[in-house]
UniProtKB/TrEMBL annotation:
Residue intervals of the Flavodoxin-like domain: 275-471
Protein name: Nitric oxide synthase 3
Keyword Cell inner membrane included in the entry's annotation: no
Lineage top rank: taxon: Eukaryota
Keywords from the named record: Calmodulin-binding, FAD, Flavoprotein, FMN, Heme, Iron, Metal-binding, NADP, Oxidoreductase
Organism: Sphenodon punctatus
FAD-binding FR-type domain span: 524-789
EC category name: oxidoreductase
InterPro entries: CysJ-like_FAD-binding, FAD-bd_FR_type, Flavdoxin-like, Flavodoxin/NO_synth, Flavoprotein-like_sf, NADPH_Cyt_P450_Rdtase_alpha, NOS, NOS_dom_1
């Protein structure tokens, strides 16, 4: 019980940014003793009865203080001594547990203008956690269910400091203010009470501890009351408790008639635990320290599986963006966003509604967006970044705000974002960055900096690293579990962390065809296209190459497209590169033999380890996997180099590989200087002994290359035409005679040799013009790779494009066309 209560206090205190929380212990069961917390609150100050009848400390806690002393507590006899907890488990006697000082956040009370106020030596704890009430839910009674919110300033200033049966400092403050306390008509009580309230609010604000004044609290309750009346037709309440003890008639709730009746679930008062407890033993239970209890809890944690133990504490719900009710965002405690970016920094199709809803949510410092802003929300959303002037201004105002100010629409939200994208395209992870910035702008607290996953460079590893770090951050933030570091390593242990003795190849009787294999591998529908022609659009003397590729769709309905769409081409690695890599494999299976990878591990339903099929790749030959499924041209990741280091026989090569895998700066220099393929890495480190299972499990997948469609469906029926700039480059490590090639462009001439490239289409709306062309002037500006077709076709290009892109009705009904302008350009030099 004590461990859970300590976790509750740590989570709720949150370094002063208090969070509402509740901890519920087992319910009351007939024939069994109750779980009880004898203290009325988790944090209370002791009250010591003096021989003259006065009380040192808090008079309301004299009885619980004496009980703590009887159970072995050694009191320091001060004015603000934090009481230990008296806890009672089922069928056991109460035990005493001193609270660790680091769990108790206290605020010294000072006044902004009255210097002498600090001499009163007042302080109060920041966390109000009611501990002794009974929670009833559906007939079940939970006798120990401590809960907390945050303080109303009048609770401390008026009730705790000014009540006659509490600290009763009112007259002392009035005398320091030189007020006439002999007659009530001087209103000395009112004047002193106001200054005490000012001091409490000021002190909590300076200490950055959450607190709310009585005016803001009553206005918030009135909104809650209106909502309850609208939704449920009523709302019970105790008028005496709801009206603040100062300036009551100045608050709207003073004039509100409220009926007090009981609903379920509800909190109810119950008899004090010591008044109903019957002792079963005469000996006094020895008090336990926090270290003793924590050690026992840690041992229990090691008995359970970390993954099960930790994930039970963090109930995840995974939803697609368009399935999520954005209204719930204001009530969430933790949200993790994993999103990709499309087009010009736009959200994916299923994230458009989520993006718009985020933009429509009002920022606490800028108010609700104007209608014109909502119309152009995409432009504004995509421009959001940490350097945005609006974000900078917001951060400045947020720092200057007090804890009584609104924290924003998402003030209680903790979040982290992971962006998916490809550095081959502009606006890398732009939508992810926009979401990350917008959530912070709305008041959310980022528990981990945004992660990025590059589709062309170890995206899965980057995501796994981010997921492990965000898991640890969430556990620390919400005080879940013990030994989070070890737990995170266990939960996110890489399933495919390669070891020679754990992996083997098994021969398979059959294997799917290439089209089925690509579909299974990428979880996307893949459709075959035959290559009709490949034409070089540059002159023979040109040092550059731009090719026009024509693909035959064979009338497949799934490959119908509109102007502005793009297709993804699944490339093949160069055959000579594959053959070279095959020569480095130490245990290659027969060339035409289909194989699958098996892993030695324990199944979920039993402790005995056995060989289980790895489903990452479909059954295929090693040659087919290296040609069509795996990326052998991208420089290996540091993790892959670490694996190669374990296989290197030469000490110098092993040391070099380990250095590259551990030194990020050195790795980046090596990567960008050499841009090595897998074959070139093995040439640099020839002592590496390369098993086939390592390549099949650790190499990244060969990703599709995206191309804009440069044809129009009406002009080229059943065809997809692509205009491709062939990428060739020379890395700094290559001689003037050597050149490297882009995978997608270099593979295109080879497509016919293996039966045609496999393509799948993904629709994107045309950003510039569309079916409104008859009434909208158009300016067409082709990208650099698309300029050559204009050069070859001449001025008729614009007329042809207008003809094929316009709807038939616009062409034949005599519709007047607005002017259109086509622009194109070419580089300076040969060709």
């Amino acid at each position: 019980m004590f461990t859970f209560l300590c976790n509750h206090m740590q989570y709720a205190t949150n370094r002063g940014n208090l969070r509402s929380a509740i901890t519920i212990f087992p319910q009351r069961v007939a024939g069994r003793g109750d779980f009880r917390i004898w203290n009325p609150q988790l944090i209370r100050y002791a009250g010591y009865r003096q021989p003259d009848g006065t009380v040192l400390g808090d008079p309301s806690n004299v009885e619980i203080t004496e009980l703590c002393i009887q159970h072995g507590w050694a009191p320091p006899y001060g004015r603000f001594d934090v009481l230990p907890l008296l806890l009672q488990a089922a069928d056991e006697g109460p035990e005493i547990f001193p609270l660790p000082p680091e769990l108790v956040l206290e605020v010294s009370i000072v006044h902004p203008t009255l210097e002498w106020f600090k001499d009163l030596d007042l302080r109060w704890h920041g966390l109000p956690a009611v501990a002794s009430m009974l929670l009833e839910i559906g007939g079940l009674e939970f006798t120990a269910a401590p809960f907390n919110g945050w303080y109303l300033s009048t609770e401390i200033a008026m009730r705790n400091f000014c009540d006659p049966h509490r600290y009763n400092i009112l007259q002392e403050v009035a005398q320091h203010m030189d007020l006439d306390t002999r007659k009530t008509s001087s209103l000395w009580k009112d004047k002193a009470a106001v200054e005490i309230n000012i001091a409490v609010l000021h002190s909590f604000q300076v200490a950055k501890v959450t607190i709310v004044d009585h005016h803001a609290a009553t206005e918030s309750f009135m909104k809650h009351l209106e909502n309850e009346l609208r939704v449920r037709g009523g709302c019970p309440g105790d008028w005496i408790w709801l009206v603040p003890p100062i300036s009551g008639s100045l608050t709207p709730i003073f004039h509100q008639e409220i009926a007090n009746y009981q609903l379920s679930p509800s909190f109810r008062y119950q008899p004090d635990a010591w008044k109903v407890y019957t002792s079963k033993e005469t000996t006094v239970t020895r008090k336990k320290t926090f270290k003793e209890v924590a050690k026992g809890q840690r041992c229990k944690c090691f008995q359970d599986t970390y993954e099960k133990h930790m994930l039970q504490g963090l109930p995840w719900h995974v939803l697609c963006m368009d399935e999520y009710d954005v209204v719930s965002l204001e009530h969430e405690t933790l949200v993790l966003v994993v999103t990709s970016t499309f087009g010009n920094g736009d959200p994916p199709e299923n994230g458009a509604s989520f993006a718009q809803a985020l933009m429509e949510m009002s920022c606490p410092y800028f108010g609700a967006p104007e209608p014109e802003q909502l119309k152009s929300y995409k432009m504004r959303f995509n421009s959001l970044s940490q350097s945005d002037p609006l974000v900078t201004a917001w951060k400045t105002q947020r720092k200057a705000s007090s804890n009584t100010d609104s924290a924003g629409a998402l003030g209680t939200l903790r979040f982290s974002v992971f962006g998916l994208g490809s550095r081959a395209y502009p606006h890398f992870c732009a939508f992810g960055h926009a979401v990350d910035t917008r959530l912070e702008e709305l008041g959310g607290e980022r528990i981990l900096p945004m992660g990025e996953g590059d589709e062309l460079c170890a995206q899965e590893e980057m995501f796994r690293t981010w997921a492990m770090n965000v898991f640890k951050a969430a556990c620390d933030t919400f005080c879940v579990g013990d030994d989070v570091e070890a737990a995170a390593k266990e939960v996110f242990r890489t399933r495919c962390s390669w070891k020679r003795q754990r992996y083997r190849l098994s021969v398979q009787a059959s294997s799917p065809d290439l089209l089925t294999g690509l579909t299974q591998l990428h979880k996307r529908k893949v459709f075959p296209c035959s290559m009709l022609s490949v034409h070089n659009l540059q002159s023979p003397e040109s040092s550059r190459a731009t090719i026009l590729v024509s693909l035959d769709t064979a009338g497949q309905q799934e490959l119908r497209y509109q102007p502005g769409d793009h297709v993804g081409i699944y490339p093949a690695n160069q055959p000579e590169l594959v053959e070279e890599l095959m020569e480095y494999i130490e245990d290659p299976p027969p060339v035409n033999e289909s194989v699958a990878v098996e892993i030695l591990e324990a199944p979920a339903n039993g402790p005995k380890r056995c060989w289980m099929l790895d489903e990452r790749l479909p059954p295929c030959t090693v040659h087919q996997a290296l040609t069509f499924f795996l990326d052998i041209t991208t420089p290996p990741s540091p993790q892959f180099l670490q694996l190669l280091a374990t296989l290197a026989k030469e000490p110098a090569e092993k040391a070099r590989l380990q250095q590259l895998s551990q030194d990020a700066r050195l790795y980046e220099e090596w990567k960008w200087f050499r841009c090595p393929t897998m074959v070139e890495v093995l040439e640099e480190f020839p002592s590496v002994s390369l098993p086939a299972s390592l390549l099949l499990t650790q190499l990244p997948l060969l990703q599709p290359r995206y191309y804009s469609v440069s044809s129009a469906p009406n002009a080229h029926l059943g065809q997809i035409q692509l205009t491709v700039a062939v990428l060739s480059y020379r890395s700094q490590g290559e001689s003037s005679q050597e050149r490297s090639w882009g995978v997608g462009e270099k593979c295109m001439p080879w497509g016919a040799a293996w039966g045609g490239n496999r393509a799948w289409e993904e629709r994107l709306p045309w950003r510039c013009v569309g079916r409104e062309w008859p009434s909208v002037p158009a300016v067409l500006g082709p990208l650099p790779a698309h300029g050559s077709p204009y050069r070859r076709t001449g001025p008729p290009a614009l007329r042809c494009l207008l003809h094929v892109a316009l709807p038939a009705a616009a062409r034949h009904d005599g519709a007047r066309l607005c002017p259109g302008v086509s622009t194109w350009g070419c580089g300076v030099g040969a060709g």
